[in-house]
Design brief:
single chain; about 280 residues; mainly alpha; 12 helices; about 0% strand; disordered N terminus
Length: about 280
Amino acid sequence: MNQAVTPVARNAVLEFQAGQSFAVRNRHAIDDLRDGASLWRLAFTLAWLDIRLRYRGSMLGPLWLTISTGVMVGMLGFLYSKLFKMDLQEYLPFLALSQVLWAFMATVVAEACATFTDMVGLIRSVRMPMFVFAMRAVVRNLLVLAHNVIVIVVVFAIFRIWPGWHGLLVVPGMALWICDGLALTLLLGGLCARFRDITPIVNSLMQIAFFVTPVIWKPEQLGAYQKYLPLNPLYDMIEVVRGPMLADPVSWRAWAGATLFSALICAVSWTFFVKARGRVAFWV
């Protein structure tokens, strides 16, 4: 056996040679989840190190991304408010919030595809729960989101917008996002390790989804067709976080759609993870 995949690959071989049942594999997957969660400090440290290495040698570091996001929001806000004939005070906060949230969502999905393939050396040489790599990817993007929130705060301060008590509903919305992020990372990370063609497909789908989801345009612009928006799960996911921040009531259809979508993603991800966890070391 190739020594490069020891000891992870050896455990995988023994597991599948023994013909273990789904119940046994499920127990191993639960152990992986539990052991990985107990290493949350390691995941946070690795995520912080990723950000430091990404902006090594830069004077402003991650703030360059915040500045570029702010400039883009400002320019697009003035342009599209004229094109859509909307009040800038109403449109710019919506655009700023939408762009920051979509950037987080799209980056999580894009980086989920490379969760395991980028860590090939670590996976093959160190016995570590796979869930640690999922947490690392999600935490890294949460840290980026945290400093991009500055753009939202500045825009809200300029236009004197305060979400009030409605803003507390962001908490369950973000909880759904984190659960979905972890589930998608395990799912796409494994699938893209096995089938490398999936990565460009996912990136193309996210580009299409950007235009069919109300990010740069508002739901009201659809007129009578607005009632069909909850059928878009990405709209539901954004709305349960964006709505409370804008003090807009979120419909029960959006909450139901986001919850059902999250449950579906988690179920599919867990089923795949249970079956494929031991093979990732070979796929990467």
